């Protein structure tokens, strides 16, 4: 029988801590860890020309990764040796994370999201005695160079400019701002907190699991979120500490009762995601306290104590703002839950955004996510301890069904869930009673019904893209024409945006078309991109999306791919000067999206020439086919193989190479597309 007084130990997995684990599992864990370190080294290697010193950690990481592959677990090493090996591995991983993050900041110094910019700007305001809640933070966009594609938009096309998080989300920046550190502070904070979460995980999990923590923390999704502007990394270390052996909380006494709720309260003070965990955790603590004596009082008392301590820790950093302006504070921290923001993310809403399933009621998604949340909580309580191992992960399932279900909501709880899984006890699972099975079935039916309603609600508009206007050689779409049909029985006001690869741009300007589309009416809208960031590239697909603010719906066109063909020039490079008067032949071949030749005859291909001089663009004076000097573009029809041949010569001395580029032209909307690579040619003696 396990010793009930042994603290912070996973009893069923004790063999993992004592080393009595299969040799193959042990070796495989370290080999995977070695592969990850090699990948870190390869990732850094590409930045050697940007910052030559990265060659040192790159070589060190690859060498140590190879050593781990050869060593594959060191089954005979002493615990002290194992600690040294793990320590070196952990330090190298942290160095890799820091160096790679530095290279990303050099490459793209702009902040990637509004949430990161708002947090740092709010901290700056507070240092100057200004309450950031209820105040527009729009100045943060330009201050931290946030692209409009990184804004959060409402259904009417207005950017969200209010602080939408608890106070600790920006108060963590204050000590560093006081020390004079402001450059890229938010990015470094994300990276540092993610690294701290890695260290805490390695410290807290059983020994055979430790190398896999390095693998988890090195995944691209996590390090990309940290550098890209997702501030969820700030609560990860606190949530990891709160998750460790949480089921032993009812047995703790003295100062130990602060261990879990202190960290959980800090996590809740940074962002709203941990809030969803709270009822599951309190229910689990109540069950654990009751399990020893069978009395509910022994479970409810520690659960209530946990709630009071966590709530107090949450409120303390927020107290100054509650006292100053309670309405603005409440509106701010509840903004992500109540604001009419556009739907987005990688959850179930994707089916409405891309496939047109549902969209007639965004409110149905909100109701569905609540059904799932409370249904999971009911399942958790009814079947406890069957779902105990996933206490810190279950809320992610509810967030999957929300209108805004970003990937960060789905993966940032995994580190704490892993800590909870391997540091809690897991008693034998008993068979469920018949009435419990009926209740579980009822919850499942309710969730399935919610999914049917959310995906079955018809979009209010039938939309069809009927024309595009491009920027020519810039190869973007700056204007579109959309045919709209209102399928509802009431006049409806649409607000338009473009979806480019899952990113909703700034809302497009309506140049023509009725602001209020009458019931069952059809109209054509001319829409213009508001800025360069909102212009879809010709090389990828996009769709136009329409929202309604009053009824909270979405509609969209089918995906539009402006280009399916493109041109390749052969030869693709001319590495030696071409003497004056000599002829050069360039062959343009039509290719499909898989770079396979397209045997289309009679298709006009346009070849242009230009000189990219140091002081600006200049016209080249080469003769192409039978044209006159400098004539551009020259047109040639393709042969049955889909090829067009251009003969080129130059009789004039040029100080700079003449650059040639071929393209196609859309036969309906007459926009150029399918640009080839650029082939510079230097003419000389």
Describe this structure as you would to a colleague.
The chain is of the alpha+beta class and about 675 residues long. Among the domains are: about 460-555, Immunoglobulin-like (Sandwich), CATH 2.60.40; about 565-680, Immunoglobulin-like, CATH 2.60.40.10. Helix content is about 40%, strand content about 15%. It is built from 22 helices and 20 strands. The strands form five sheets. Strands 13, 14, 16, 18, 19 and 20 form a six-stranded antiparallel β-sheet that branches. A four-stranded antiparallel β-sheet has the order 3-4-8-7, with no helix packed on it. Strands 6-5-9-10 form a four-stranded antiparallel β-sheet. Helix 9 runs parallel beside helix 12. The longest helix is centred in the N-terminal third of the chain and has 29 residues, at about 80-105.
